[in-house]
Amino acid sequence: MEESNILIAVITLAVGGLIGYFAGRSSSSSDNSQKRQVDELKVEINQYKDSVASHFQQTATMINEMNDSYKSVVQHLAKGSQDLCDAGIAKDIESRLIPKLDNNDAEVEPQERQENTPVESFEPPRDYAPKKPDEVGALSEHYGVKTAPIEQEPVTADAVTQPDVAAPKS
Prior knowledge:
Blueprint: H1 2-84, H2 87-104, H3 110-116
Helix pairs in contact: 1-2
């Protein structure tokens, strides 16, 4: 009986070893295929990143070219207005075109633009609410606020009574 137990153990060990050997070979091939898939995905992601970067580089170049074309058109219009129009009209057209050029220049600081803006162009907000001359306008802080005297009688401690609340019956 003892020999049959040892024989069964040896056979079981041999069968287990064969199963382990074949399982190891098949898992190593699946590991290789997974590594290959990961490498392919990395290459695909890098290609996508490169295409996105080149797209934005091309877009930036095109926008710069468009800005340059716009500047040349505005300059052409200003020169044409000087050559073809009266001096007053040419100055008016040029004054309208030059601020548009300044807005597109990256070198011009926002503070410089504000300093170049004439003070006459700023107006305070207008009060368009219909009103009588002696009434307050809609932009006033006191518009719509009515103050009426509040008449209150002094409250004393005996004047305040607590209502009798009966406890619910269970």
